[in-house]
Design brief:
Number of helices: 5
Keywords: Signal
Distance between the termini: 54 Å
Number of strands: 32
Organism: Coprinopsis cinerea (strain Okayama-7 / 130 / ATCC MYA-4618 / FGSC 9003) (Inky cap fungus)
Largest sheet: 11 strands, mixed
Low-confidence stretches: 238-246, 363-377
Pfam families: F-box-like
Protein name: F-box domain-containing protein
Radius of gyration: 24 Å
Oligomer: single chain
Helix content: 10-25%
């Protein structure tokens, strides 16, 4: 029986199960199938194979379903062959910084020192673009230690202009970015100003090391281990001059040096994960009725132990610096209960909170109540990693993690030295590879954000991007601004000397900058 004799609704169901090559072949057989593939096939494929990407949001809304699938297909091929454009997003800053990134579908914000650098996403000639919007200086001459330690966007009705900013001097402010129109400058951007509001929900007892947001909720962790869980309605200011009265927060004290946090309100049982230094550096706390459990539900170990009982005091001291959700297309499924973590020993470990075969029960004993394991509980479930990733040529600590990339199956890790970013395809974990950032600084990569076709990163000297998208054009990237253009707003912090080591030869019409890369199974650079 000819395929075209089937009812249209049956044909549409068949199209949803086909691959890209199958859809392309089918669309060339006859006009009926061509129209069905064009109208339903490509849209179904795009829906069933998501490629999350903030920076492509504007462009994808203008693209047809066929163009979206074509872009994803060519991007996946570029990932497979490790072909990409490497570009700095700015010239070298005036001083060495410890920057961090925040992203929405509208803009990328780079927080470095006392400055916020904003890059807006757009669409030029049907191609996704990145433009420098401006920089604001949050310095306060009456306050010492004003360096930004963490930043995240707050839900403000898709305006994407409200940020929560934490400082080393133990303050937290809400910063609202306000574009200045009619002040367009090709090199300095159209201009930005801002409005700041002190937030009282975070007492001045310690500085916030990390923020994480999920479904209108906010999680923070301070350097001494104080964790707070808030509903964002109590964070976003209700007026231009005052904060809303803070909603009651769920607070727990980990009593350990803490580095990062991860909030997941999408899981069947919402949870908060924390990365600390100690014998149990990766713990997971369940969330119910907008409150965190006082004791961890899971303790995630660095390796599998054969014994059925574990003394937590006998574990080695380690640290976890990065936590993220595993890629959507990893072999373990798209569940938010699959976590990837970056450790001090240079390994990326993936855990499945749904796992049963690797569960062990920690025995109840007085020895487990020592300060080093005070955040642990004898009733917690012990889990070991289901997959461990490592660049055998780099034992450096993993500072930051992000997931996405080609086929939504990759993990990107920023390492502690030589501006190296490592990538793994979780479907073929042995075929990992690493690349240096433009400039090949000795710096760590302090933060990375991995999308379908782009990876944003930042070192102590500058932000950068790897772009795996097809047909890149020079006007899709920001103009590299000379240092003198931003000197008025990017002076180094008081007491820190000027730092102008470029490390890159900037050329006006250069599309990509040379970077060294190597595979983890190789014996040298390529």
């Amino acid at each position: 029986m000819p395929l075209t004799t089937l009812p249209t609704d049956i044909l549409i169901l068949i199209l949803a199960s086909l691959s890209i090559t199958d859809l392309a072949s089918l669309s060339q057989t006859c006009s009926l199938l061509h129209s069905l593939v064009t109208e339903f096939g490509w849209a179904a494929y795009s829906r069933l194979h998501p490629r999350p990407s903030h920076s492509l949001s504007h462009a994808r809304r203008k693209w047809s379903a066929y163009t979206q699938v074509q872009h994803d297909y060519l991007t996946d091929k570029a990932w497979k062959s490790t072909e990409f454009i490497a570009r700095p997003l700015s010239r070298t800053w005036a001083g060495k910084q410890q920057p961090t990134l925040a992203i929405t579908p509208t803009r990328l914000v780079v927080a470095a020192g006392t400055n916020l650098y904003s890059y807006v996403f757009g669409c030029k000639s049907s191609k996704p673009s990145i433009s420098f919007e401006g920089v604001v200086n949050l310095d306060d001459p009456l306050v010492r230690g004003r360096n930004i330690t963490s930043v995240t966007f707050l839900d403000d009705g898709e305006l994407d202009s409200t940020l929560l900013v934490a400082y080393q001097e133990q303050r937290v402010e809400i910063i609202t970015l306000i574009p200045v129109h009619g002040n367009n400058n090709q090199q300095r951007g159209p201009g930005l100003t801002f409005r700041r509001t002190r937030h009282a929900a975070f007492p001045q007892d310690d500085y916030v090391e990390s923020f994480s947001t999920s479904r209108h909720h906010l999680l923070s962790i301070s350097s001494n281990g104080t964790a707070r869980f808030l509903y964002q309605g109590g964070v976003v200011p209700s007026t231009e001059s005052e904060s809303s009265p803070p909603t009651p927060s769920a607070r727990i004290d980990l009593n350990e040096r803490s580095w990062t946090c991860h909030l997941s309100m999408d899981a069947s049982t919402p949870f908060a994960a924390f990365g600390t230094s100690g014998k149990t550096p990766l713990t997971v706390y369940s969330i119910s009725q907008d409150r965190m459990s006082p004791l961890p539900e899971y303790i995630l170990l660095s390796k599998k132990y054969g014994d059925t009982s574990i003394s937590l005091d006998s574990l080695p001291s380690l640290a976890v610096y990065g936590i993220t959700r595993a890629p959507l297309s990893s072999p373990f499924g798209a569940s938010p209960q699959v976590l990837a973590s970056g450790w001090f020993d240079g390994q990326v470990r993936i855990y499945d909170l749904r796992a049963s075969e690797s569960r062990l029960t920690a025995p109840s004993s007085p020895s487990q109540t020592t300060p080093s394991s005070s955040s642990s509980s004898s009733s917690a479930t012990i889990l070991s990693p289901i997959l461990t990733l490592q660049d055998r040529w780099s034992p450096e600590p993993i500072y930051t993690l992000s997931s996405g990339g080609g086929s939504s199956a990759h993990i990107a890790a920023g390492t502690a030295r030589h501006s190296v970013v490592s990538f793994w395809d979780t479907r073929s974990p042995r075929l990992g590879w690493s690349v240096h950032a433009p400039g090949n600084d000795r710096s760590p990569v302090f933060d990375v954000i991995l999308e379908s076709s782009r990876c944003f990163g930042v070192t102590e000297a500058r932000p950068f991007v790897y772009d795996f998208g097809p047909n890149p054009s020079l006007d899709a990237y920001p103009t590299l601004t000379p240092n003198r253009e931003l000197a008025a707003v990017t002076q180094p912090p008081r007491g820190q000397r000027q730092y102008h080591r470029e490390g890159i030869k900037y050329k006006p019409n250069l599309m990509t900058y040379e970077v060294a890369k190597y595979t983890h199974a190789s014996s040298g650079l390529s």
